[in-house]
Amino acid sequence: MIHLAVRNAKPGMVLAEAVCNLHGTLLLKQGVELTLRNVMMLKSWGIRKIFVEGEGDEDEAGDKKRSDSDVAETMRGTDYEGLEGKFSDVLDDEVMVEVMRVARNRLQRRLPERKGNDETQ
Amino acid sequence: MKPNNLTRIIGKVDDLPTLPRTFLKITELVNSPKSSAQDLARVITDDQILTARLLKLVNSSFYGFPRRVSTVRGAIVLLGFDAIRNLLLTTSIFDLFSNMNRKGKFQREQLWDHSLGCAVGAKVIGGYLKYDKIEEIFVAGLLHDIGKIVEMLFLPKEFQKIAALIEAKDILMVTAEESVLGYTHAEVGKMLAERWNLPSKLVHIIAHHHGPPHAGKFIQEAAIVHLADILCRAVDIGSGGDRKMPSLCQTAWETLQLKVSDIEPIVGEMEAEFEDIGLFVNHSL
Lengths: 121, 285
Prior knowledge:
heterodimer; A: alpha+beta; Molybdopterin biosynthesis moea protein, domain 2; two-stranded antiparallel sheet; 5 helices; elongated; B: mainly alpha; Hypothetical protein af1432; 2 domains; 16 helices; 69% helix; 0% strand
């Protein structure tokens, strides 16, 4: 049995234990084979971890796959120069430095052609 | 603070096209320990549009119940009172964003995305903290910038000045608001939330999402929304109306007791969920 983060769950995995929501309502029975739809449903209920059948540690491949998912381009305004300016007043805080690093990573995925230039900074 | 201006908005708040009386009745019922699923169902079924929406939502893939739910009472029993109230509040807020005039459509859509992103972010952070009222914190995220919508609708000239000031000086919206209006969207939002008789927790979160320590016993909730707001701005989920990062309140961060290394996975989950729920909200309501 593997204790798995829902974000890493994949269609075809089989539930080793039933999943209930906060109110105790049964969402999925033990033995159910996961589909994309019911993984999404588990997320919508705020379920974070599930038990699936199999052996070994949590599969980390799911993270990689998810991070590649494309992001709606229209929602994304900042470019690299913008990022510097945006964070210029708050970088005395280590948390905000990390937030900026994460934002820069996102940007590099969206604007891969600029990756080389900006990784050197 | 320029009280005249604020009073002018207060006078117009009743014109806002949302939060039907049904919602207030529902809030009352949800808060009363004596009410039954039957009482709540009666109020909802009086409103055909709400009934249709509720059943559509309950039967959508968002909730993904294995069998079809065909009665309002069935929906209430499955979801619980609080969830129903929050779900109806969510649909009412969606109306607020969509029913407004066509002017400033892009800005509004960006703000809607920012609000939805913040709602999803609050939900994800709430999950990390094992916070038990996930739906409530989601609604808080959705509503945190409601004051900006009010400004857009009722103070269009001032709002334009604010936008121009942000453009010219590249400053935070709150700074521009202080300079043009003498108060900020947080105060306007608080006033609206009080007008709507929203629960005190929501009023506090809206009022203090930029300064959680002022939220008193709701500091944790305000801190959750505060961080969600910052993360949404960082990765450009919609736009809060400016291009600067507000600073992170240290007390809020300490309240959350998160690790710096939690930021990346939280942002990852936020983005993934925003895509899922964004599709759902934009196409299903």
